[in-house]
Design brief:
Length: about 150
Amino acid sequence: MSTATPTALVPLTTRDAETLIAAARRAAEDAGVTVSVTVLDAGGHPLAFRRDDRAVLISGETSTRKAYTALQLNAPTADLVDLVDLVKPDGPFHSLPTALDKPLLFIAGGIPVHRDGRLVGAIGVGGGAPEQDHGFATAAVDALAVIDR
């Protein structure tokens, strides 16, 4: 019988979400890109959202869907781009998007957030080129990891 006590999972907080938003926006601003950033908790509920004044309106929706996709599949959306053929109407996983609450979006810019190796939420960035959005989201997750140490 194991006597090890499991460590309690520390959930993603609104303060963490604000840290993620600020870091992503700082990275985007440094690149001269206006973006929207969404942070979801482990249950897929919004913790924070921010759209730059001049960010295209659709970036709000794409940032949210990227975060949702990264959370549901526990993978960066940049790693999922090739899966889009699997969920097309004639693909083997065509029912996956309809089985979930919201549509998935297989475009780079969504990153799951882990704490102590466990999924606690996700961030999504929209507004730049997909590679840029991925970089901004990665910078945000890296900034949070520094604080968590």
